[in-house]
Design goal:
Oligomer: single chain
Helix content: 25-40%
Order of helices and strands: EEEEHHEEEHHEEH
Strand order of the largest sheet: 1-2-3-4-6-5
Pfam family, one: Pkinase
Protein name: Serine/threonine protein kinase
Largest sheet: 6 strands, antiparallel
CATH topology of the largest domain: Phosphorylase Kinase, domain 1
InterPro entries: Kinase-like_dom_sf, Prot_kinase_dom, Protein_kinase_ATP_BS, Ser/Thr_kinase_AS
CATH superfamily of the largest domain: Phosphorylase Kinase, domain 1
Radius of gyration: 17 Å
Low-confidence stretches: 1-13, 177-186, 193-205
GO molecular function: ATP binding; protein serine/threonine kinase activity
Number of domains: 2
Keywords: ATP-binding, Kinase, Nucleotide-binding, Serine/threonine-protein kinase, Transferase
CATH architecture of the largest domain: 2-Layer Sandwich
Number of helices: 5
Protein backbone atom coordinates (compact mmCIF):
# COMPACT_ATOMS: atom_id res chain seq x y z
CA UNK A 1 0.00 0.00 0.00
CA UNK A 2 1.27 3.45 -0.85
CA UNK A 3 0.71 5.48 2.32
CA UNK A 4 3.32 8.18 2.00
CA UNK A 5 3.61 10.01 -1.30
CA UNK A 6 3.42 13.42 -2.88
CA UNK A 7 2.54 14.51 -6.38
CA UNK A 8 5.06 16.26 -8.57
CA UNK A 9 2.71 18.82 -10.10
CA UNK A 10 5.24 19.69 -12.77
CA UNK A 11 4.85 16.31 -14.47
CA UNK A 12 1.12 15.67 -14.11
CA UNK A 13 -0.36 15.45 -17.61
CA UNK A 14 -3.74 13.80 -17.20
CA UNK A 15 -6.22 12.89 -19.90
CA UNK A 16 -9.81 13.34 -18.72
CA UNK A 17 -11.32 9.92 -18.21
CA UNK A 18 -13.84 7.63 -16.64
CA UNK A 19 -13.54 3.86 -16.60
CA UNK A 20 -15.90 1.50 -18.40
CA UNK A 21 -16.88 -1.99 -17.33
CA UNK A 22 -14.03 -4.41 -18.03
CA UNK A 23 -11.27 -1.85 -17.50
CA UNK A 24 -8.33 -3.50 -15.74
CA UNK A 25 -6.31 -1.65 -13.13
CA UNK A 26 -2.91 -2.38 -11.64
CA UNK A 27 -1.95 -4.88 -14.30
CA UNK A 28 -5.12 -6.92 -13.88
CA UNK A 29 -5.30 -6.89 -10.08
CA UNK A 30 -8.68 -5.14 -10.29
CA UNK A 31 -11.40 -5.20 -12.95
CA UNK A 32 -14.09 -2.52 -13.11
CA UNK A 33 -17.61 -3.97 -12.96
CA UNK A 34 -19.73 -0.82 -12.99
CA UNK A 35 -19.95 2.77 -11.87
CA UNK A 36 -21.72 3.08 -8.52
CA UNK A 37 -22.18 6.82 -8.51
CA UNK A 38 -20.59 10.24 -8.76
CA UNK A 39 -20.79 13.28 -6.54
CA UNK A 40 -19.50 16.81 -6.71
CA UNK A 41 -15.88 15.68 -6.45
CA UNK A 42 -15.55 11.91 -6.55
CA UNK A 43 -16.61 8.97 -8.67
CA UNK A 44 -17.01 5.46 -7.26
CA UNK A 45 -16.78 2.11 -9.00
CA UNK A 46 -17.58 -1.46 -8.07
CA UNK A 47 -14.70 -3.73 -9.04
CA UNK A 48 -13.46 -7.28 -8.53
CA UNK A 49 -9.96 -8.21 -7.51
CA UNK A 50 -8.07 -11.12 -9.02
CA UNK A 51 -9.45 -13.40 -6.29
CA UNK A 52 -13.05 -12.63 -7.27
CA UNK A 53 -13.65 -10.40 -4.24
CA UNK A 54 -15.76 -7.26 -4.70
CA UNK A 55 -14.19 -3.94 -3.76
CA UNK A 56 -15.09 -0.28 -4.15
CA UNK A 57 -12.67 2.06 -5.92
CA UNK A 58 -13.01 5.81 -5.52
CA UNK A 59 -11.16 8.55 -7.39
CA UNK A 60 -11.72 12.14 -8.52
CA UNK A 61 -14.38 12.70 -11.17
CA UNK A 62 -14.22 14.36 -14.58
CA UNK A 63 -15.36 17.73 -13.26
CA UNK A 64 -12.45 17.90 -10.84
CA UNK A 65 -10.00 16.55 -13.42
CA UNK A 66 -10.77 19.60 -15.59
CA UNK A 67 -10.08 22.12 -12.84
CA UNK A 68 -6.93 24.25 -13.13
CA UNK A 69 -6.14 23.39 -9.50
CA UNK A 70 -6.59 19.65 -10.08
CA UNK A 71 -3.11 18.85 -8.73
CA UNK A 72 -4.08 20.36 -5.38
CA UNK A 73 -7.23 18.25 -5.30
CA UNK A 74 -5.11 15.19 -6.07
CA UNK A 75 -2.77 15.96 -3.19
CA UNK A 76 -5.68 16.62 -0.79
CA UNK A 77 -7.32 13.37 -1.90
CA UNK A 78 -4.10 11.43 -1.32
CA UNK A 79 -3.48 13.03 2.07
CA UNK A 80 -7.02 12.17 3.13
CA UNK A 81 -6.60 8.58 1.98
CA UNK A 82 -3.42 8.25 4.03
CA UNK A 83 -5.22 9.43 7.16
CA UNK A 84 -8.37 7.39 6.50
CA UNK A 85 -6.30 4.23 6.14
CA UNK A 86 -5.42 4.63 9.82
CA UNK A 87 -9.09 4.81 10.86
CA UNK A 88 -9.74 1.15 11.58
CA UNK A 89 -13.23 0.66 12.98
CA UNK A 90 -16.06 -1.80 12.43
CA UNK A 91 -18.39 1.06 11.48
CA UNK A 92 -16.07 2.69 8.93
CA UNK A 93 -15.58 1.22 5.47
CA UNK A 94 -12.12 -0.36 5.51
CA UNK A 95 -9.46 0.99 3.15
CA UNK A 96 -7.47 -1.83 1.58
CA UNK A 97 -4.90 0.23 -0.29
CA UNK A 98 -4.19 3.42 -2.21
CA UNK A 99 -3.22 2.97 -5.86
CA UNK A 100 -2.15 5.16 -8.78
CA UNK A 101 -3.73 4.46 -12.16
CA UNK A 102 -3.90 6.52 -15.38
CA UNK A 103 -2.55 9.56 -13.54
CA UNK A 104 -5.19 9.32 -10.80
CA UNK A 105 -4.87 8.43 -7.14
CA UNK A 106 -7.54 5.91 -6.12
CA UNK A 107 -8.77 4.52 -2.82
CA UNK A 108 -9.57 0.80 -2.81
CA UNK A 109 -12.16 0.14 -0.12
CA UNK A 110 -14.23 -2.60 1.39
CA UNK A 111 -17.42 -3.42 -0.51
CA UNK A 112 -20.42 -3.29 1.85
CA UNK A 113 -23.07 -5.85 0.95
CA UNK A 114 -26.35 -4.21 1.92
CA UNK A 115 -28.33 -1.02 1.39
CA UNK A 116 -27.98 2.58 2.45
CA UNK A 117 -30.04 4.07 5.24
CA UNK A 118 -31.98 6.38 2.91
CA UNK A 119 -33.13 3.43 0.80
CA UNK A 120 -34.13 1.48 3.91
CA UNK A 121 -36.28 4.30 5.28
CA UNK A 122 -37.79 5.08 1.88
CA UNK A 123 -38.86 1.48 1.37
CA UNK A 124 -39.66 0.34 4.91
CA UNK A 125 -40.64 3.54 6.66
CA UNK A 126 -39.43 4.99 9.95
CA UNK A 127 -36.99 2.79 11.83
CA UNK A 128 -37.96 1.34 15.22
CA UNK A 129 -36.54 3.51 17.98
CA UNK A 130 -34.13 0.87 19.29
CA UNK A 131 -32.70 0.24 15.82
CA UNK A 132 -32.34 3.96 15.09
CA UNK A 133 -30.54 4.54 18.38
CA UNK A 134 -28.21 1.63 17.68
CA UNK A 135 -27.20 3.14 14.33
CA UNK A 136 -26.77 6.60 15.86
CA UNK A 137 -24.42 5.17 18.48
CA UNK A 138 -22.44 3.21 15.89
CA UNK A 139 -21.98 6.16 13.54
CA UNK A 140 -21.20 8.42 16.51
CA UNK A 141 -18.39 6.06 17.53
CA UNK A 142 -17.07 6.06 13.97
CA UNK A 143 -17.09 9.86 13.76
CA UNK A 144 -15.32 10.14 17.10
CA UNK A 145 -12.48 8.03 15.76
CA UNK A 146 -12.38 10.04 12.52
CA UNK A 147 -12.19 13.33 14.43
CA UNK A 148 -9.46 11.94 16.67
CA UNK A 149 -7.40 11.44 13.52
CA UNK A 150 -7.84 15.09 12.52
CA UNK A 151 -10.43 14.46 9.80
CA UNK A 152 -13.94 15.65 9.01
CA UNK A 153 -16.39 13.48 7.11
CA UNK A 154 -18.15 16.56 5.62
CA UNK A 155 -20.99 14.56 4.10
CA UNK A 156 -22.85 12.64 6.80
CA UNK A 157 -26.31 11.82 5.45
CA UNK A 158 -28.49 8.69 5.13
CA UNK A 159 -27.17 7.95 1.62
CA UNK A 160 -23.65 7.65 3.06
CA UNK A 161 -24.54 5.21 5.81
CA UNK A 162 -24.61 1.60 4.67
CA UNK A 163 -26.51 -1.11 6.56
CA UNK A 164 -24.87 -4.50 6.27
CA UNK A 165 -27.11 -7.22 4.87
CA UNK A 166 -28.64 -9.49 7.54
CA UNK A 167 -27.01 -7.50 10.35
CA UNK A 168 -27.92 -4.52 12.52
CA UNK A 169 -24.68 -2.75 11.74
CA UNK A 170 -24.22 0.67 10.15
CA UNK A 171 -21.07 1.61 8.25
CA UNK A 172 -19.92 5.11 7.35
CA UNK A 173 -18.81 5.56 3.73
CA UNK A 174 -18.08 8.22 1.08
CA UNK A 175 -15.67 10.78 2.51
CA UNK A 176 -15.14 14.05 0.65
CA UNK A 177 -11.98 15.98 -0.05
CA UNK A 178 -11.72 19.67 0.83
CA UNK A 179 -14.29 21.61 -1.12
CA UNK A 180 -16.08 24.89 -1.65
CA UNK A 181 -17.97 26.25 1.38
CA UNK A 182 -21.12 26.35 -0.79
CA UNK A 183 -20.96 22.75 -2.01
CA UNK A 184 -23.47 21.62 0.61
CA UNK A 185 -26.22 23.64 -1.12
CA UNK A 186 -26.56 20.81 -3.67
CA UNK A 187 -26.88 18.18 -0.97
CA UNK A 188 -30.66 17.55 -1.16
CA UNK A 189 -31.43 19.26 2.10
CA UNK A 190 -28.68 17.73 4.23
CA UNK A 191 -26.26 20.25 5.67
CA UNK A 192 -23.20 18.69 7.33
CA UNK A 193 -22.57 21.19 10.11
CA UNK A 194 -18.85 20.48 9.98
CA UNK A 195 -18.49 22.43 6.74
CA UNK A 196 -19.95 25.64 8.11
CA UNK A 197 -18.07 25.38 11.37
CA UNK A 198 -14.81 24.65 9.61
CA UNK A 199 -15.28 27.66 7.34
CA UNK A 200 -15.78 29.83 10.43
CA UNK A 201 -12.65 28.38 12.05
CA UNK A 202 -14.73 26.82 14.80
CA UNK A 203 -14.32 23.45 16.39
CA UNK A 204 -15.18 20.60 13.99
CA UNK A 205 -18.39 18.61 14.28
CA UNK A 206 -20.76 16.57 12.13
CA UNK A 207 -24.52 16.63 12.13
Amino acid sequence: MCLYATIDTSVVNLSIMTWASGKQLQGGKYRIEQELGAGGFGITYCAKDNNGRYVVIKTLNEQVQRRPDFSKFQQDFLNEAIKLAKCTHSHIARIDEVIHEDGLWCIVMEYIDGENLAYRVENQGVLPEAEALRYIQQIGEALTLVHNHGLLHRDVKPQNIMLRANETEAVLISYQVKESPLAFLNNNGYHPLAKEMMDKACKSANL
